[in-house]
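RECORD TYPE: inverse folding
INPUT: structure tokens
STRUCTURE:
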């Protein structure tokens, strides 16, 4: 996998890609190739060009070498490269000029883990660690590159160490830089807001710098930490793709710069805006891990690479390929109008319709009757939950259900006992009124006493042993980011220290309770990222439960995240977010391929559609095993249609859902071309036992049901007239 020649050409190669760079004659790390695997990677060095450019400043006196057109592994500013640098800051002379030179390297078999940050797991991998040094300021940067035998993901990070005797201030401390050759590219990213997360935008990469980032304290729904550079014309099945993400949940930046000579630089890491880290002599600073994927067969192959990797190397191992329970969540069933009796009634309903778990959402703790109070006081409300949570959980379990509970640990309402006692435990700055979001303030998780308090409060509930699931919510962005626990000159470290505190808390809790399924939520998908998914096997990707909204969100999220990480439920109709009326069938099918499926409906709505819901929950239960570890494919996505395929891990079952959004007369006959099937096998359609050959389903395609507006021939497969229709095919592979 990793080879090094004696003239210091480094190659990381597996069956997915080769990544090649060298120590240039000038002593810097010069990037040579990232793309399809090369049989003799070291030969690419001869392709490199050097020229005397007009107006260029030549690097430290060399005639044909300026850094502006040199692809580099970890660029700095101030020595002839004018592009956005991976390292920038204030050095011990007070200026901002750094210059990093190769010092040494080593190859390790065990992938190193980062202190305080979640990391991708190793195993059948090799890691190359290169040490660069700025000789004047005695700053070393250790670049780490991990390549796996069986995954198309390259993992990178950087570790800075101040070996000098004076402070260095880091401002750009990116995790990785990737310089790609001049070409015409599109850039694809996922943007959004509350209840409209994961919208895809694809634009032609302009000259200049295109950045997605966050300064909200969370990775946020505004831009998910994912970016892909696509060869022009790339489709689901064709084209070279370079995609990048981060194992980080805070202020990140992914920047793509098309420079003067049209080469492209991708930087991935902590957002340099509003970041500043004081690196004292002897101290180190670790960046989060950046992940790079190269795929040469379009977006579908890119997603398969991500999905396999996230499942196998990032999500908690304990839940890998473990089926998730169907559930009834109290939120859209009752909102804050919840008490012990209602929970038990809903548990009865849950049992009746065949779901396996009851989840008690917001509203159970002391004084919490609406969203204006009580966050921070994590004991059960005595009036509405007189038995307390452990006893209530036992009663629910006595009905043969599992029990789950909601927390929003990182927050506090000014109207709470916690805030009264510790007003300085919130993020705030002196002399300014704090801005509220959903009537709440953010606790200062950079302070150990705060994370200790939260651990004790949550532990006190979980230790009863009756809790199977925790929904970990977080419902506002940060403002007035300042900490009473840090000196003035470290206030710009608070956002990152908050994330380190959060990770520490999550690690402690998930290690103590390895069997509890933690579900990540931040008003839906406001912090759905690989950092949070390192601790929690699944996430609530959006509060949008209308099926038309939800299918767009799932489609977008599926570029990077496997559906094993997603939860979805049948919500009310008319939908509470957009008022749309839709069938139980379409509401269910929009989330059919998510690992965790359920309902959040009032007793009245359950009663009104009891049989239909029971049928869907029975299907969910019987397919729970298939919905983890399988393969997801986006077959069709246009303004009016979506078609997805899901193939079980053993290949034995193939599911196809087709959605037709707005009805129209006289429509074309549509086909979906299935993918990844065994061409020689026969697939039997469950509904009528028709036998289809694998090659025919892939190459000739499967006719989609027709949205009929006229007369329909009896044996023609059609969907109900009207808007928002959907259809599910289930094929069983003949043995
Ligand atoms: C926001 C979440 O996304 C919802 O599902 C629900 O848990 C509410 N918070 C509760 O306040």
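DESIGNED SEQUENCE:
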């Amino acid at each position: 996998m990793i080879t090094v020649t004696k003239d210091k050409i480094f190659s990381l190669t597996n069956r997915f890609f080769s990544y090649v760079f060298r120590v240039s004659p000038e002593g810097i790390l010069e990037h040579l190739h990232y793309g399809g695997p090369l049989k003799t990677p070291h030969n690419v060095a001869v392709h490199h060009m050097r020229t005397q450019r007009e107006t260029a400043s030549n690097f430290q006196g060399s005639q044909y070498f300026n850094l502006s057109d040199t692809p580099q592994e970890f660029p700095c500013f101030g020595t002839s490269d004018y592009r956005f640098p991976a390292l920038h800051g204030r050095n011990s002379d007070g200026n901002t000029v750094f210059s990093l030179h190769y010092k040494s390297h080593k190859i390790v078999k065990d992938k190193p883990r980062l202190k305080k940050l979640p990391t991708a797991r190793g195993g059948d991998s090799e890691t190359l660690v290169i040490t660069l040094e700025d000789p004047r300021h005695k700053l070393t940067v250790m670049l780490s590159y991990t390549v796996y035998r069986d995954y198309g993901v390259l993992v990178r990070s950087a570790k800075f160490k101040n070996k000098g005797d004076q402070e260095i201030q880091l401002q750009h401390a990116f995790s990785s830089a990737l310089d790609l050759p001049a070409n015409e590219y599109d850039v694809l990213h996922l943007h959004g807001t509350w209840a409209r997360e994961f919208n895809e935008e694809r634009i032609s990469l302009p000259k200049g710098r295109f950045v997605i980032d966050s300064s909200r304290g969370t990775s946020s729904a505004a831009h998910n930490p994912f970016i892909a550079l696509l060869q022009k014309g790339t489709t689901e099945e064709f084209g070279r793709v370079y995609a990048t993400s981060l194992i980080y949940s805070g202020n990140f930046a992914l920047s793509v710069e098309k420079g003067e000579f049209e080469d492209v630089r991708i930087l991935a890491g902590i957002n340099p805006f509003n970041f500043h880290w004081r690196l004292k002599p002897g101290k180190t600073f670790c960046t989060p891990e950046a992940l790079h994927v190269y795929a040469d067969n379009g977006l579908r192959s890119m997603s398969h690479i991500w999905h396999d990797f996230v499942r196998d190397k990032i999500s908690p191992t304990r839940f890998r390929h473990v089926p998730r329970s169907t559930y009834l969540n109290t939120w859209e069933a009752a909102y804050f109008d919840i008490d012990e009796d209602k929970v038990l009634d809903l548990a009865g309903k849950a049992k009746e319709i065949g779901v396996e778990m009851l989840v008690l959402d917001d509203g159970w703790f002391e004084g919490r009757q609406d969203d204006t109070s009580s966050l921070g006081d994590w004991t059960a409300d005595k009036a509405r939950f007189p038995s307390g949570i452990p006893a209530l959980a036992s009663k629910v379990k006595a009905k043969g259900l599992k029990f789950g509970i909601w927390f929003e640990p990182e927050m506090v309402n000014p109207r709470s006992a916690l805030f009264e006692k510790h007003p300085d435990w919130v993020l705030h700055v002196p002399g300014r009124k704090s801005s509220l979001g959903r009537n709440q303030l953010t606790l200062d998780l950079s302070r150990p006493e705060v994370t200790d308090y939260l651990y004790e409060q949550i532990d006190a509930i979980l230790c009863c042993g009756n809790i199977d699931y925790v929904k970990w919510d977080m419902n506002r962005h940060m403002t007035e980011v300042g900490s009473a626990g840090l000196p003035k000159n470290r206030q710009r470290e608070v956002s990152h220290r908050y994330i380190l505190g959060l990770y520490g808390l999550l690690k402690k809790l998930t290690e103590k309770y390895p069997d509890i399924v933690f579900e990540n939520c931040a008003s839906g998908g406001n912090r759905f990222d690989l950092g949070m998914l390192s601790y929690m096997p699944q996430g609530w990707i959006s509060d949008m439960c209308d099926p038309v909204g939800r299918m767009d969100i799932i489609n977008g999220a599926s570029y990077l995240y496997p559906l094993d990480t997603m939860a979805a439920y049948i919500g009310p109709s008319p939908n509470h977010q957009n008022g749309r009326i839709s069938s139980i069938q379409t509401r269910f099918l929009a989330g059919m391929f998510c690992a965790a499926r359920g309902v959040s409906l009032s007793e009245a709505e359950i009663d009104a559609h009891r049989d239909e819901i029971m049928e869907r929950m029975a299907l969910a239960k019987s397919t729970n095993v298939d919905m983890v570890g399988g393969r997801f494919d986006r077959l069709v996505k246009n303004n009016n249609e979506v078609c997805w395929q899901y193939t079980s891990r053993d290949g034995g079952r193939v599911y196809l859902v087709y959605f037709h959004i707005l009805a129209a007369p006289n429509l074309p006959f549509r086909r979906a071309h299935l993918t990844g099937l065994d061409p020689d096998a026969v697939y039997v359609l469950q509904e009528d036992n028709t036998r289809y050959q694998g090659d025919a389903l892939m190459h000739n395609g499967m006719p989609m049901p027709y949205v009929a507006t006229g007369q329909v021939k009896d044996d023609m497969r059609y969907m109900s007239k009207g808007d928002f229709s959907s259809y599910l095919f289930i094929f069983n592979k003949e043995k």
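NOTES: The longest strand covers residues 168-180.
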